[in-house]
Write a structure and sequence with these properties.
This protein has 510 residues and is an alpha+beta fold. It has 17 helices and 14 strands. α4 runs parallel beside α9. The chain is globular and about 65 Å long.
Length: 510
């Protein structure tokens, strides 16, 4: 017994030592990130006045006196940005990598589809890989494999992006390849017919994904009857009737040089990226040659939509509020709020000890299978809220907890919670620099939304400018006593009605 006790005590001591060592490593990691508590690394004073220009506007919260940043942040390679004579933007950032990523980011998406042909932007993405003037579909697929390329593309409501990651010696081929499929695709009528069935199958897959389907429902009710409320894939009847002329008209109207950004990331020099862009994209026209669909300002509607399926055993639901445009000065505070609320899944190793109070409540009381927060921002509006999957007997409690935690951001959030969220965001932003493709996407997104690349020191300074008072101010503006929007699907008989939820968007405080 004595020997067993000794082994037990020894095991506990080893476990405690392991935890302490891990904690020490975590503390060293966090200290490497600039925050209100200055790190032991070399620091530099920051001239905040030089960071107050551009779409993000001035800092809305004061930074600590004599604010300093870790000097190593200034050692990151700068992003070089220039423009071609036709108005196309070229950006590059040098990294120590054996691969390069060529990304073409275009400021157009499903929001620019004509109402009678919604889904055109997404349909176009499919057709871009079906043959050009000098490459057949077989050539497009064969060359990608031959040159070790990883190809990706996506269409969102306001943007379209194409990425090609290749070994760095294949940079020129990659630039030629992506320009060819973007600018010289044939959009053959036979290919259009073949892609209809492919997109219709994709619709079925999207509709089977609870989160994708709920977010489409959420947009549809929040922006009912507007372009922003339509799905990216378009209506079924439109997909069945889109013609080649619809595709070519969309390209002629929206694929113009001023709306395009060519971004190259990897072990390259900017002069090389600029020369290749000029060679392969210099002929892109500057003006549209077809009528352009005007983007009307989005009008948010507080509302509720639900689909009742009593044969399902789970309810998928999202509760949200209208938030801020992507280039608003308080958009950084929204990122912090999103991180404070957090996310959780029932199979997660973290639950009752999570830093997210909502995760702790949900885990302790088994209120949901999972939840996540969303912070979707557009050029003139946004949606902020919580998505969850729960059961009929828990849906009222989950709804109460989700709304309560969002309202708590208006009143009881602490500086400690804000600092934890800021540290997590900094780690996420630093991780983007590890992959050429994610770095490329981030640069392209910023050029389309801000019109410039936000330097890492500025981004960290903006994060450090967010404190509890800032979060409360922003949360009060978008959550406290505001009309919400809700979408749910499943056995929704027990989902609280709109008035019940609306009453819980504020507290009676005296």
């Amino acid at each position: 017994i004595s020997a067993a006790c000794s082994r037990g005590v020894f095991s506990v001591i080893c476990l405690f030592r392991s935890i302490m060592l891990r904690g020490a490593k975590l503390n060293r990691l966090l200290k490497a990130l600039p925050c209100r508590q200055l790190s032991s690394a070399p620091t530099v004073n920051v001239d905040i006045s030089s960071m107050q220009q551009g779409p993000l506007g001035n800092h809305r919260a004061p930074l600590p006196p004599n604010y300093q940043l870790d000097a190593r942040l200034l050692e990151t390679n700068p992003t070089h940005v220039t423009s071609l004579s036709n108005g196309l933007t070229v950006a590059s950032e040098k990294t120590n990598s054996n691969v390069v990523t060529v990304g073409v980011h275009i400021g157009t998406g499903s929001r620019d589809d004509p109402a009678s042909a919604s889904g055109t932007a997404h349909f176009l993405e499919h057709l871009s890989f079906k043959g050009t003037g000098k490459r057949s579909q077989r050539d497009i697929e064969y060359e990608a494999e031959k040159n070790g390329a990883v190809l990706n593309a996506y269409t969102s409501r306001e943007t379209t992006s194409y990425f090609l990651t290749v070994p760095k010696q294949n940079l020129e081929w990659a630039t030629d390849y992506v320009s060819d499929i973007l600018l010289n695709s044939q959009y053959d009528a036979a290919a259009v017919e073949r892609e209809r069935s492919v997109i219709l199958r994709e619709m079925q897959e999207v509709n089977a994904d609870s989160s994708e389907y709920i977010f489409d429902m959420l947009h549809g009710t929040a922006f009912d009857g507007q372009a922003l409320g339509r799905t990216i894939l378009g209506a079924v009847e439109n997909v069945q009737t889109i013609r080649r002329d619809d595709i070519t008209s969309f390209v002629q109207a929206n694929y113009t040089a001023p709306r395009m950004n060519v971004v190259v990331t990897g072990d390259i020099e900017h002069a090389q990226a600029e020369d290749l862009s000029n060679k392969y994209f210099g002929g892109v026209r500057s003006e549209p040659s077809a009528p352009v669909t005007t983007r009307d300002k989005a009008l948010y509607i507080g509302s509720d939509v639900r689909e009742r399926w009593d044969d399902m055993d789970r309810i998928s639901m999202a509760i949200g509020f209208e938030s801020l445009p992507v280039d608003h000065a308080d958009s950084v505070a929204l990122m912090v709020m999103n991180t404070i609320l957090g996310a959780w899944e029932s199979n997660s190793l973290v639950g009752t000890n999570s830093t997210s109070s909502l995760a702790r409540i949900v885990a302790e009381n088994e209120l949901a299978d999972s939840f996540s927060t969303f912070n979707t921002m557009y050029s003139d509006t946004g949606l902020f809220g919580i998505f969850g999957i729960t059961t009929p007997d828990k849906v009222s409690d989950f709804t109460w907890a989700a709304e309560r935690e969002m309202v708590n951001l208006c009143h009881t959030v602490s500086d400690e919670a804000v600092d934890r969220a800021v540290a997590q965001l900094k780690a996420n932003f630093l991780a983007q620099y590890a992959a050429s493709s994610s770095l490329n996407e981030d640069i392209g997104r910023q050029l389309m939304t801000y019109g410039r690349r936000v330097p890492l020191p500025e981004l960290f300074a903006r994060l450090d400018g967010v404190d509890a008072a800032t979060v409360k101010r922003v949360a009060n503006g978008i959550i406290n006593d505001r009309d919400h929007v809700c979408a749910s699907k499943g056995p929704v008989a027990n989902v609280p009605d709109y008035n019940w939820m609306r009453r819980r968007t504020y507290m009676l405080r005296y």
